[in-house]
Amino acid sequence: MAKLTREEILKLAKLARIHLTEEEIDSFGNDISIILEYVEQLKDVDLGKLAPTYQVTGLTNVFREDVAVDYNETPKELLKNSPDSENNQIKVRRML
Predict the structure, then answer these.
(1) Which of 6, 13, 47, 60 is in the most buried spot, having the most CB atoms within 10 Å?
(2) What is the mean pLDDT of residues 3-12?
């Protein structure tokens, strides 16, 4: 990969919304070029035999059976606990 031009570095800085001094333009240009060269090396690595890594901690999901619980309460009994109700519904202030 060729070294980044000054215009490419300034374009990247503009996209990242950062202001660079002249020294930083040269420094970041060299650093970004080195990183891009490393990425180019990674393109050549054969990953065909490797399985994707989805989880690295070894934890597994623990599922439980969903069970419906009937508390034998009627809507009217439940509405007794609300501060205000109307037409078998909990009444609240308007929220916009």
Answers:
(1) 13
(2) 89
Q: Assess contact for 9 and 29: CB atoms under 8 A.
A: yes
- Kindly state the DSSP code that residue 86 receives in the 8-state scheme: E
Q: Quick one: pLDDT band at residue 1, thresholds 50, 70, 90? A: low
Q: From the CB of residue 29, how many other CB atoms can be counted at a distance below 10 Å?
A: 19
Phi then psi dihedrals of residue 36, to 5 deg: -65, -35
Kindly give the interhelix angle for 6-16 and 22-43, rounded to the nearest 10 degrees. 90
What are the CA-CA distances from residue 94 to residues 78, 91 (Å)? 22, 9
Band of pLDDT at residue 47, cut at 50, 70 and 90: confident
Mean pLDDT across the chain? 88
Across the strands, what pairs with 89?
86
